[in-house]
């Protein structure tokens, strides 16, 4: 699995910073199954899929949207590779439950189907979606997600800005609030970095360290390279 904080970094095109990695990661796949359920505001599934196709097309891989298939479960089972894009995590999880494909997706990932998630598509890799930054525009049947990793992701993690007079909560404050009621560790994943997951081996790649939060412990900066998260 590749679990990325974002699909686009400042000044770059969609997935551009990840393409060299994706070319190798999906080397056995001729076609990627795209899950556009989190679609950003104002665009259709078709438009979102076309955006993914443009990026993957540049490395010689085709993209088909899951909505183009009559049977979503079979599409997942037969996929050579899967990509879940960003947008609203509440809507993404809602649609995964509505289409009854969450467990099927988990099964094929555990069997080794290569998977890319960005933003919302990364949030669902954890134990639950409770550390999303998104507004609850819909009410999914459950916050439980794939649980392919033993911790949660806080995508687009932002550090407090020294001297900033904004009185709202920081990401760190919100994660501490989460830990007042939950035990699950949370990884603050900064834009421009991603996780590579292969069985029980997890490596932090990209340009930035990540910040690990555990209940009743001081946050820890994780350096690039292989990491151990219980």
TrEMBL record:
Keywords linked to the UniProt accession: Hydrolase, Protease, Serine protease
The name this protein goes by in its record: Dipeptidase E
Keyword hit for NADP: no
Hydrolase is among the record's keywords: yes
Pfam families: Peptidase_S51
Span of the signal peptide: none
Family under the similarity heading: Belongs to the peptidase S51 family.
Organism: Polaribacter dokdonensis DSW-5
TM stretches of this protein: none
GO molecular function: serine-type peptidase activity
Single GO BP term: proteolysis
Stored NCBIfam families: PRK05282.1 (NF003642)
Lineage, broadest ranks: Bacteria, Pseudomonadati, Bacteroidota, Flavobacteriia, Flavobacteriales
